[in-house]
Amino acid sequence: MQIIAKTFEGLENTVANEIKELGGENINIVKRAVEYEGALSLVYKSNLHLRSAIKVLINIAQFSANDEYELYEKAKKIPWFDFIGLNQTFAIDSNVNSEFFKHSKYVAYKVKDAIADKFTEIRGRRPNVNVYNPDVRINIRIFQNNVDISLDSSGDPLHIRGYKIDNLYAPLNEVLAAGILLNTDFNQKDSFYDPMCGSGTLLTEAMMINTNYAPNIHRESFGFMTWHDFDNKLWKSILNNAKESITKPSIHFFGSDIDRKAVFATKKNLTILNFGNDIDVKQADFFKIKNCSDFKFIIMNPPYDVRLQTEDIIGFYKNIGDKLKKDCTGIEAWVFSANLEALKLLGLKPDSKTKLMNGKLPAELRKYSLY
């Protein structure tokens, strides 16, 4: 079957590499998504194991349509009985970028009509719509006159891992955090330190990568679980294999934050994970830490002065650069920020820059070797 993994802009190659490791075939990278082929088992594995994917979709139809009537007629020809039971509910999400179709809600409405009319004509009645908690969620993507219709196998977005008990202000998205980490070489070091850990997203995702801990192993539900062809035996086998594949940490993980509430939230979130209590988290001011060079790998996601306001963002970033240059020599430091102007104030020449998007904010992940 044709599978599509949606992701953040800039993480397409990262997702493609993950899909290749899972056994995906005929991998094709497109904007904010990766297309590939595989069996039903790969759909289950993709939802469980992909760290940098937002959604996993199953394409069921591709066609061209130049107006609402053509869209309706072609959508009606799709074998909906194969995907939706008469007593099930469904909902439709749509994304439109087209001169032929102006309103995404109207597109969803026309496809809903096509489904309802087909059921009524052949079965005498139709399944109901449930926009909040449907049994089957349908995704429509239209670019110009090209229409892609897919089933959403994920349900809730995959950044909802199931381990986040306590959240702070402006948390880093879990999928983005994992994508950032997969673009570093932290797993080759013997120590990992996040000095501005917030609620611990980078720390948690890093430990999960290091221990081969499936990112969505704590999720209680996925979209595919309410499909009428859900294979519970196959899913349990995949889930059990994932649990048996978890290894012990090979890295010493450390985290700190100047905010006491952040430290408390991080510790609380880590309790649900195997080996979470092995991570050393404490309240500390990064600028006053004296043993910075003891950590071989440092990564941070400092405030951007967008959602989190810092009184002196210029001085704040300058102080980060000064601290790294003065007290963190001999290590590798990574900084992720959506304040591209402030990044220049670090006063360090980056080894590499990776362009990413944090929501609608252009951002960069920069690597610094501190000799």
Spell out the blueprint of helices and strands.
Elements: E1 2-6, H1 12-22, E2 25-30, E3 33-37, H2 40-49, E4 55-64, H3 68-76, E5 89-97, H4 104-123, E6 128-129, E7 136-143, E8 146-152, H5 174-182, E9 191-194, H6 201-210, H7 232-244, E10 252-257, H8 260-270, E11 280-283, E12 297-300, H9 313-327, E13 331-337, H10 340-344, E14 352-358, E15 361-370
Parallel strand pairs: 5-6, 5-7, 9-10, 10-11, 12-13
Antiparallel strand pairs: 1-3, 1-4, 2-3, 4-8, 7-8, 13-15, 14-15
Descriptive labels:
single chain; 371 residues; alpha/beta; four-stranded mixed sheet
What composes the largest sheet?
Answer: 8 strands, mixed
- The N- to C-terminal Cα distance equals 50 Å
Structural class: alpha/beta
Could you give the order of strands across the largest sheet? 2-3-1-4-8-7-5-6
Helix content: 25-40%
Reading the helices and strands in chain order gives EHEEHEHEHEEEHEHHEHEEHEHEE
Shape: elongated
User: Radius of gyration, rounded?
Assistant: 23 Å
Number of helices: 10
The whole-number mean of residue pLDDT values reads 93
Low-confidence stretches: none
Query: How many extended strands?
Result: 15
Beta content comes to 25-35%
